[in-house]
Amino acid sequence: MNRQPIYEWTGKEYAFEEHGDDWYFALGIIAGALALASLLFGNFLLALVIVTGATTVGLQAAKHKRTHHFAIYEDGLAIDDNLYLFQDMRDFSVLEYIDPALPPALSIKTNHLLSPHILVPIHDFDPEEIYAYIEQHLPEGMHEETLLDRIVTYLRF
Questions:
Q1: For residues 92 and 109, is the Cβ–Cβ distance under 8 A?
Q2: How much is the pTM?
């Protein structure tokens, strides 16, 4: 079946901010101090979790953003080679940010266990046009910034 997209664009997955050596050094010092304190209190598992978590945060912060291909079809939303069907989605919202550097985003809550929330930056199209099309397939829902979103923004990964 040859399917034609209704809307199609490319965009970056997240806003990348370059971290200097001092940021990684501070991460290492804080993680090391917490792990050492955990070891002194005899909590080896917590020390392992702290070291693993700090390593993961450092590696994630060092990643450069990827460009993704987004497309909206009659039956769903595609991100690269993954198709998310409208029938597996709960609701949606179009988010517009106060910061003009951030593009509007299509926020979708799904029934998928591994991807319960999809956030897609909208480029090259009017967000109201995307809203009007998605509204024909999904109900609008209240999508607020979560605590995890705020932490990630604060730490600037």
A1: yes
A2: 0.63
